[in-house]
Structure formats: C-alpha cells, structure tokens
C-alpha cells in the first residue's frame, strides 16, 4: 500500500487545480488534504467490512473495558470521528496490560455515505455506513421532445 504524505497530496492538488475540467472540487481537495494531515495511531484496533452487494460498510473497533458512556461518535463535514476517554483510573496495579487511554479515530466519508447507526456489545463497537444516493442524483432517462410540439397541460 502506498503511503501518501501531505507533500504528495499537495503536489497532486496543485497539478489538478488549474485544470478547468474540475469545477467545484475545492472543498473535496481541502478534505483530502486535511485527512492526510491527520496522524492515526494503532489504538484501538479496528476492521472495516465492505458489503459489495449493497455498497455498505461496517467499522468495528475493539474496545474491551470501555462503556458506551466513554465513547462519542460524531460526523463533521463528511468526517466520521470516534473518540474514547475512559477517564482516570485510581486502582494500584501490579501489572497493567489493558490500555484505557484516550483515543481519536477519523474516517473521511465519500460522497453519499451516511452513518446509519452504531451498536456496542461485548467490547465491540460497530458503526454502520450506507451509500444513500438521493433520487435527484440517480440515473434518469431524458426524453427528446419535438421543437414544434404542443405542450399539453394535464388536469387531474
């Protein structure tokens, strides 16, 4: 997998910006640049499951020991943000191998991707994301009318 840096994305955006075939893509380029600047960590571990039949996704995060009160899920400017904060632990450990640290995970959502819901069971957080294409964006057939055809107003 190729790792892109901000410098890579910046140079690609600079190449595309003067191209007059990309109209209204400024916000998309800004989102792409912001997502590259975000530094991700390995905690917590997660899966992304893609159902190709209905173009939906499920993000699964392993959060053993956390409760649903410790987790916040938000969508801001087509960015899914999951934050966790277990708070301070007052226990005196002989050995502490289970991490309860603060975390933040971000995913940039594509066009028409909508977070449908979340569930948290047995230490596994599941976020369901579907592709919802509005009716006005779905393919449609345009009929060709005659130039001198009379327009008929239907009464109903």
Describe this structure in words.
- With 156 residues, the protein is an alpha+beta fold.
- It has two domains: 37 residues; 92 residues, Immunoglobulin-like (Sandwich).
- Helix content is 15%, strand content 31%.
- The chain has two helices and seven strands.
- The protein has a four-stranded antiparallel sheet, with no helix packed on it. Strands 3-4-5 form a three-stranded antiparallel sheet, covered by helices on one side.
- Helix 1 runs antiparallel to helix 2.
- The model has no long low-confidence stretch (mean pLDDT 82).
Write the layout of secondary structure elements.
Layout: H1 6-16, H2 26-37, E1 46-51, E2 56-62, E3 71-76, E4 79-84, E5 103-108, E6 113-121, E7 124-131
Helix pairs in contact: 1-2
Supply Rg.
Answer: 23 Å
CATH class bucket of the largest domain: Mainly Beta
Query: Spans with pLDDT under 50 lasting ≥5 residues?
Result: none
Order of helices and strands: HHEEEEEEE
């Amino acid at each position: 997998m190729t790792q892109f840096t901000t410098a890579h994305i910046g140079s690609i955006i600079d190449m595309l910006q003067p191209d007059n075939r990309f109209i209204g893509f400024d916000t998309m380029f800004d989102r792409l640049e912001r997502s590259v600047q975000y530094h991700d960590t390995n905690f917590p571990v997660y899966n992304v499951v893609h159902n190709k039949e209905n173009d939906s996704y499920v993000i699964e995060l392993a959060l053993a020991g956390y409760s649903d009160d410790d987790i916040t899920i938000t969508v801001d400017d087509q960015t899914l943000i999951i934050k966790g904060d277990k708070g301070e632990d007052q226990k005196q450990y002989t050995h502490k191998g289970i991490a309860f640290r603060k975390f933040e995970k971000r995913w940039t959502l594509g066009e028409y991707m909508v977070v449908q819901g979340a569930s948290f069971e047995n230490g596994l957080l599941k976020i369901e994301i579907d592709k919802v294409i509005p009716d006005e964006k779905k393919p449609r057939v345009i009929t060709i009318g005659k130039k001198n055809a009379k327009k008929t107003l239907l009464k109903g």
